Amino acid sequence: MKWAGWRRVRQAVQVLSLGVFVYLLYAALQRQTALPLADLFFRLDPLPGLAAMVTARTWLPRLALGLVTLGLTLVVGRVWCGWLCPMGTVLEWARFTGAAKRQARISPRWRLAKNLLLLVIAAGALVGSLTLLVLDPLTLLTRSLTVAVLPALDHAITAIETTLYTVGPLQPVVDAMEQSLRGPVLPVEQPAFAQNITLLLLLGGILALNALADRFWCRYLCPLGALLGYLSRFSLLRPVLNTSCRRCARCERACRLGAIDAQKGYSIQASECTVCLDCLTVCPQETAGFRLRPSLEPWREYDPSRRQFLGALVAGAAGAAVLRTGVQARVRPTQLMRPPGVEDEASFLSRCVRCSECMKVCPTNALQPSVLDAGLEGLWTPHLVPRIGYCDYGCNACGQICPTGAIPALDLAAKRQAVIGLAAVDHNRCLPWAYSVPCIVCQEMCPVPEKAIKLDVLTLADGTKLPRPVVREDLCIGCGICEHQCPASGQAAIRVYSK
Asked: Which candidate, 109, 328, 92, places its Cα nearest to that of 213?
């Protein structure tokens, strides 16, 4: 097969890879696939896996698939970036007119940024912080799609349906469309997440950077690309040009990552090459190809100097240490409730890689990304917000899908015994306590078989019996359904606090 044929194969693999990624995302949202399969791409991502193992100081078998990606890189280079990475595919398709001219004015030394970012992440992991893993491409894409893009798409479709439904003849069509989409494709209830605008702007900003250079993120900022680039320097197969090259520069213009340098004899930088095959396809003399060259690639101008290397390590370690000195490091905020099974906050933060897989599969939309609730160190880690959603008594999906064990994989019986928090009745807002208005919604909704909310019956002056809710602390697991279902407007009259 000629190189043009292999290039079409690569493009087909990209489409297939992105399609499977989106399908698994939707399937997890709709609970249509086995949970261990739903995080397949994340487990293939070696950066969060290695960082989580370093911070947890233990081997995490579920992330062992990342070794496959590392091994593949050592053989053929950054094939993950050019063939399989969903973020890379999205950025490759998001092309802007005139980007090629603008990227010529950007110094190659800007590639140093992703290498330094990788070192900062590594240093942070060594001292137990995974905060900067929010910039891993797969966690970033998954989080943005889960929290911002898909809910926005859901709301947009609903708005269109609502508008069309006002046209009488279209109502049967809208009804049929809603029945075919709601459930199989779209969630039954529209999800809502905190930080959705922030995450949408972050993803939009990364896409907009393509106006400056093709795949700007991949060239200059991606920490996973930096990791795989370092390994590519040792790869067995390397793209090379033979001596019959006529220096027509077609390959340099075709390269999306700027890996071919005309100023240095059209040498191909293995650490930047994503094996896209574009250069091989456009070469009129077929002078480019892959050769077995198991030698180390020479030092490049964008490689960190010794001072920059040490500076990045010190900055990463110092930054992680500063993040851990906040008040939240000693006292967990009363409203910060972690997923079921999480006992120790420090241990949780040392394993959570902010992948948003748990938020993706939560059927009640209860798990939300933290902002400053847990301090900067806990940025975008999951926490339970009962007013938005409750922890379903019959669900243990978050622990089953968590790839690092930050959320323990409890069986359903154990999960039902896991204490998340403790409910407390506000006597100044509760209808029976404050206004003598009958209401036992919280008691009726409590899923604990023995009922963690009991009724204290008060006999009024006219002889009427008024039941008032009382929380049994020894039975309450803090699932939050009482707060979620409380009919009081605004802040609930019964609230769940962290244990």
From this structure: 92
| pLDDT surpassing 90 at residue 44 | yes
**pLDDT score at 195:** 86
Banded model confidence at residue 459, pLDDT cuts 50, 70, 90: confident
Q: Which CATH architecture has domain 419-499?
A: 2-Layer Sandwich (3.30)
Q: Is 309 exposed, middle or buried (0-12, 13-18, 19+ CB in 10 A)?
A: middle
Distance CA 272, CA 275 (A): 9
Mean pLDDT of 341-363: 90
Q: Please report, for the chain, the start and end positions of each structural domain, with discontinuous segments joined by +.
A: 3-292, 419-499
**pTM value > 0.85:** yes
Give the pLDDT score at 220. 94
Q: With bands split at pLDDT 50, 70 and 90, how would you rate the model's confidence at 254?
A: confident
pLDDT at residue 422 above 60? yes
Give pLDDT, residue 330: 54
